[in-house]
From TrEMBL:
Protein name: histidine--tRNA ligase
Keyword Metal-binding tagged: no
GO cellular component: cytoplasm
Annotated source species: Candidatus Doudnabacteria bacterium RIFCSPHIGHO2_01_FULL_41_86
UniProt KW Nucleotide-binding keyword: yes
Length: 426
């Protein structure tokens, strides 16, 4: 026999997760699963179908995408095509809409998704998370905006999130935004020295709406006197926006007109954010709005696009801030208590047989004395325990114990299922 052999590790120590990456542990996923369940149910009620696009696409698809100093995660494949990991879902969805000619198939395509996204942040860390959201392509009346917001407020309030608020704005379209941007440029030109470094950079690079969104106190003070976009909207934008607000009124949904809400770099027209207030502060639950130039920007016909997206980390931190915890534990009908190895083996068969009769049995893996097991059954409010000791295992019998009264009876394997069903009233 000799000395036992020792394995040499392949790596000295398993490397930790990458900075910026996140593991989703069972305790996180319980809440996430509850979210997804609600998401699926509401999506179907509101007529959205689920869609999934690949994690990687030709990098040219993301030409519209820019998020400050964040960068795409890219690599070149063997055919020399630059490939990028999707940083957000909307572009893949737009490609799908075009590639499969959805415009010829239906007037409106209404989709929901939850899918991983990744990018590189300014610190050079790979950020990865799950994004979920809704996307509508095609002819949409302003009531579609109101209805989408209605769905979202329902989703978050059903999750138990308190003090929800809707911040809404209209940032204009390709027709009316340029004139407004000119006004903003003139306005900020004289006030450059009151702007924070980042906003000054935005000014120099013509990202003028970005200055309005800056939360720096000095920038906010300057921005509060700035020209207001509402005064510059073209007739189409104005009519659409009034339609959205009227729809919200009709649904009895309160909103705040908020100039600081400017959407994404690819946003146009109506943009909005849903926020939650707790004692600890304000939480952004996600943002949405129109991206009406997107399909045309990717070579398609002019097509309105309306959507909302948020990420797993935003939702999880909001749930934590609101002190909301979920549990998806299955209701157990009977508790299995095997004593010893042979009994454990027999319990495997019993578990399966119970399962075949739609009776949910507890997990029985792991050690524990009969006393602790029965205590566990009691605390889980399980009325029936099935005990198999060594003797029972050999003789093919099972002890049925009424957990509350402590009364015990012996049954054969053949009879036990019927007896359990009878006691469960099935
Ligand atoms: Zn316009
Ligand atoms: Zn600023």
């Amino acid at each position: 026999m000799g000395r036992p052999k020792k394995l040499t590790p392949t790596v000295e120590k398993a490397p930790p997760r990458l900075p910026g990456a996140m593991d989703l542990l069972p305790e996180h996923l319980v809440s996430w699963d509850v979210c997804l369940e609600k998401l699926q149910t509401l999506s179907h009620t509101f007529g959205f179908s689920k869609i999934e696009t690949p994690i990687m696409e030709d990098a040219r698809l993301y030409s519209f995408w820019s998020q400050g100093t964040d960068q795409l995660l890219t690599f070149t494949d063997q055919k020399n095509t630059l490939i990028a990991v999707k940083p957000t879902n909307i572009f893949g969805l737009a490609r799908c809409y075009l590639e499969y000619h959805f415009a010829d198939r239906e007037k409106v395509s209404k989709w929901f998704y939850h899918s991983p996204v990744a990018w590189m942040n300014s610190a050079g860390e790979t950020k990865q998370t799950m994004e979920f959201g809704f996307q509508i392509f095609g002819q949409t009346a302003p009531i579609a905006d109101a209805q989408l917001i209605n769905l979202l407020l329902k989703l978050f309030s059903e999750l138990g999130m308190p003090n929800l608020s809707l911040e809404i704005n209209n940032i204009g379209c390709i027709e009316c935004q340029p004139a407004y941007q000119d006004q903003l440029r003139n306005y900020f030109k004289d006030k450059k020295y009151d702007l924070c470094e980042e906003s000054l950079d935005d000014f120099e690079n013509n990202r003028l709406l970005q200055i309005l969104a800056c939360t720096n106190l000095s920038c906010s003070t300057v921005a509060s006197e700035a020209p207001v976009i509402i005064d510059f909207l073209c007739e189409n934008c104005r009519r659409h926006f009034i339609g959205v607000l009227e729809g919200l009124d009709e649904l009895g949904l309160a909103y705040n007109l908020n100039q600081k809400v400017i959407g994404k770099p690819w946003s146009k027209r109506t943009v909005f954010e849903i926020r939650m207030r707790t004692e600890a502060g304000e939480w952004l639950l996600g943002s949405g709005g129109h991206a009406d130039d997107l399909i045309q920007g990717l070579g398609g016909l002019p097509t309105p696009a309306l959507g909302f997206s948020t990420t797993l980390d935003k939702i999880l931190s909001a749930l934590e801030a609101a002190n909301l915890k979920f549990s998806t534990k299955n209701k157990v009908d009977v508790f299995l208590v095997p004593l010893g190895d042979l009994a454990a083996k027999k319990t495997l068969r019993l578990f399966t047989e119970l399962w075949n009769h739609n009776i949910v049995a507890s997990e029985f893996i792991g050690p524990g004395s009969i006393k602790t097991q029965l205590k566990l059954a009691e605390s889980n409010k399980v009325a029936i325990a099935l005990i198999i000791g060594q003797k029972e295992a050999r003789e093919g019998t099972v002890i049925l114990r009424d957990v509350r009264s402590g009364m015990q009876e012996l049954f054969t394997y053949e009879r036990i299922i019927e007896e359990v069903k009878k006691r469960l009233g099935r």
